[in-house]
Amino acid sequence: MTAVPGTEALLRVQGLQVHFPIKGGLFFDKTVGHVRAVDGVDLAIERGSTYGLVGESGCGKSTLGRAILRLVEPTAGEVLFDGTDVASLNGEPLRRMRRRMQMVFQDPLGSLDPRQSVESLLSEPLRAHGLGGGTRGIAEKIRGLLDAVGLPSAALRRYPHEFSGGQRQRIGIARAIALEPDLLIADEPVSALDVSVQAQVLNLLEELQEQLGLTYLVIAHDLAVVRHISDVVGVMYLGSLVEQAPADDLYEEPLHPYTRALMSAVPVPDPVVEENRERILLAGDLPSPANPPGGCRFHTRCPWRQETRCDDEVPVLRELAPGRLVSCHWAEEIRDGLLQPKSAEEVAAIMGVSVRGAGAEAIETDALVQGIDQPIERT
Amino acid sequence: MSSVLGAPVLEVQDLAVTFDRKGEQPTKAVDGVSLTVAPGETVGLVGESGCGKSVTSLAIMGLLPQRGVSVRGSVQLEGQELIGSSDKTLRKLRGAHMAMVFQDPLSSLNPTVQIGTQVTEVLLEHREMNKKQAEAEAVELLDRVGIPDPRRRLREYAHQLSGGMRQRALIAMALACSPRLLIADEPTTALDVTIQAQILELLKELVVDTGTALVMITHDLGVVAGLCDRVHVMYAGKIIETADRHELFARPRQPYTGGLLASVPRLDAGRGAPLTPIRGSARDAIPWEQGCAFAPRCDNAQDDCLTEVSGSIVPLEYDGPGRELRCRHPLEHPPTPSGATALGAVR
Predict the structure, then answer these.
(1) Which residues pair with B216 in a beta bridge?
(2) Do B194 and A279 touch (CB under 8 A)?
(3) Which of A298, A331, A342, B71 is the most exposed place for a label (fewest CB within 10 A)?
């Protein structure tokens, strides 16, 4: 594991799996297969640090976040929060545990009840957990919360639709920190916001972490956002972690072929950089998580795929250097430049798909892939 | 620069779009926008939600509803005036001479009609082909935009394709008649980065191969940096800065452009590199008649940014070769060797 001696992990996830059944058949709810949204993930988050989880739509990052909070039931595996297995809790103990782990959602309007005023939205969690010390205590606490997230106290009597996107996300954050949680899981916290407002919310999250000593799990598809905010970054592909490393190391020298391709695809707002960087184009689309490729799951699109091992041997997440985990059989050879990447055309020819995109898999899984955390339209 | 590339494909002069609202002041969504696009040129239109960039594109295509909307100004496609043209004329031009790719590929494809029918429809309508020829051409088009096994795909429906494939199918439809002008409105916003890279690469190739003029509408400065030759930055319905892309990113003059660049987290900047957000949100804009719409959020703002003090609306003025600027107190940049990035200057 990544825990440095002397520091303790607040959250430890071991062998977590979330499989969703695919129902089929004419009359009966027969299970005809499983979508392996999360398929055996281990990770640890140190107290007070930020863990960034990146990956493309359908890689299972949101499901992983939800499974940690038990908003979806894990199929297998352990979620140890401060030493307690969350997966084994039920009823009242689970409810009490949830006070300490809160979530900030992607769509600030969709996650705030349109019929509740801000005051009611913020006092509800306090009342539900019997915190805040009576009506007067709660009122005072709410004013403090608004202050902490940079909203005027006049906001109390207003309703979510009266605010702009950035302000709504502030309300969502205020609600999440109302219970003084230890862990905050933020699922795409800024992807629905305009660029100029994104920066405000990112800065707010960092300020709050400093003031309240929060631990963050930030889930996002935007690698630049994740790099900006994270101490440790994990990259997911088709339900598994393919690489995990301290943020700066990961961005300086990505070890997994998928991480390399992902990083080279992110546009940088600087024409000089854009013109001089090398782009690793991947062949095809993400394979279906209902029927993932055998061996290394990335081998169907990997520019560094080798004739041996890649197709039939599942790579394990192993430690290449201190704190740097990677699941690739050939990581050392790729790092040292002993293996040369093939172009997207060559990969496509070998795998029998098109250069620019492979066909979608079965209908039901494609809909599923599309449905998960698609960025919200901004125009 | 545009002048060496020949006569412009698209010339927009003083375009204004106003939406009437019941019992309220009409909303000026686009307020005096002028731009030209030459063949083989890619022009970016950048701005945040609500700045009027999409309405501009719809007005150019003549796709705005007629009731409750007034469109003024001039839009010329290869010399032909579009504003005020009959629906019939526009129908003939759309698809054949100008085409558009929208943000959300799923809702711009008909879910109940096979992809093939939707692609051949354009060909049958504009290119006097029979069904057989149209089908053969459709296969070629899908192949050209990188859809594998195009014959099978023609028989499929939109929901059977992945997001990236749908966007490719739409691009294929837009290209069916080799239009002189292609407008892409946030074509990659709904896609993952690796798929986005594929689509941007495809658009780049198309512009080079066919000499199509491309108008790229986006909020993503990274996409602009990689793709566009010239960039217009819009705010509250007006163009506030125009520059060649290298110039714009190296020396942004409008404080809004500078602010945008300083507030985007960059992949190549370290953990904790400071982000300087712009204060407030686009909602704080004031009407241009009262002063610079960005003034309430601007750190450089002074009294004469208000019309009341200066006596005139802030004009869009010449600001060096190839540049235009709408600002009375722009960001100053010391003369820097070329190739330096903007961020040092802005932060």
Answers:
(1) B44, B184
(2) no
(3) A342
Distances (CA, A) of A180 to A132, A212, B29: 11, 8, 43
The structure's pTM equals 0.84
Q: Tens digits of per-residue pLDDT, A160-218?
A: 999 988 899 999 999 999 999 999 999 999 988 888 888 999 999 999 999 999 999 99
Q: What are the C-alpha distances in Å from A209 to residues A47, A149, A199, B120, B187?
A: 11, 12, 15, 56, 36
Strands B181-185 and B213-218, how do they pair? parallel
> How far is it between the farthest Cα atoms of chain A?
69
Res. B145: pLDDT tops 90: no
Residues A269 and B261: their CA atoms lie apart, in Å, by: 7
In the structure, what pLDDT confidence band is assigned to residue B162 with cuts at 50, 70 and 90?
confident
Q: Between helices B115-126 and B131-144, what is the axis angle to 10°? A: 120
pLDDT for the residue numbered A368: 38
Partner residue facing B162 (CB), from A229, A231, A366: A366
Q: Do A378 and B263 touch (CB under 8 A)?
A: no
Integer Cα distance of B198 and A283 in angstroms? 9
Tell me the helices (H) and strands (E) count for chain A, helix number first: 13, 12
Tally A–B CB contacts below 8 A: 215
Question: Which residues have CB under 8 Å from A207's CB, separation 6+?
Answer: none
The string of DSSP codes covering B277-290 is: PPSS-GGGPPPTTT
Contacts of B46 in chain A (CB under 8 A): none
**Is B120 within 8 Å of B200 (Cβ atoms)?**
no
Q: d(Cα A226, Cα B297) in Å, to the nearest integer?
A: 27
Confidence of residue B233 (pLDDT cuts 50, 70, 90): very high
Q: Is the reported ipTM for this assembly greater than 0.90?
A: no
Task: Please indicate whether, in this complex, the C-beta atoms of A166 and B273 are within 8 angstroms of each other.
Answer: no
Q: Confidence band (pLDDT; 50, 70, 90) for B5?
A: low
Give yes or no for a contact between A50 and A59, defined as CB atoms under 8 angstroms apart: no
Tens of pLDDT along A63-104?
999 999 999 999 999 999 998 998 888 889 999 898 999 999
Pairing of strands A50-54, A232-237: parallel
CB atoms within 10 A of CB A319: 12
CA distance A322 to A218: 23
Tokens found for residue B241: 């800065």
Q: Which two tokens stand for residue B153?
A: 């795909």
**3-state SS class at B26:** strand
What would the two tokens of residue A147 be?
A: 């202050």
Shortest distance, CA B92 to any CA of chain A (angstroms): 28
- A11 three-class SS: strand
Q: Could you say which residues from 56 to 75 on chain B have a Cβ atom under 8 Å away from some Cβ of chain A?
A: none
For strands B181-185 and B98-101, give the pairing. parallel
- Would you state the pLDDT for residue A7? 58
Burial class (CB in 10 A: 0-12, 13-18, 19+), B175: buried
The angle at the Cα of B194, spanning B189 to B198, to the nearest 5 degrees, equals: 85
pLDDT digits 0-9 by tens, B277-320: 888 888 888 999 999 999 999 999 999 999 888 888 899 999 99
Would an 8 Å CB–CB cutoff place B270 in contact with chain A?
yes
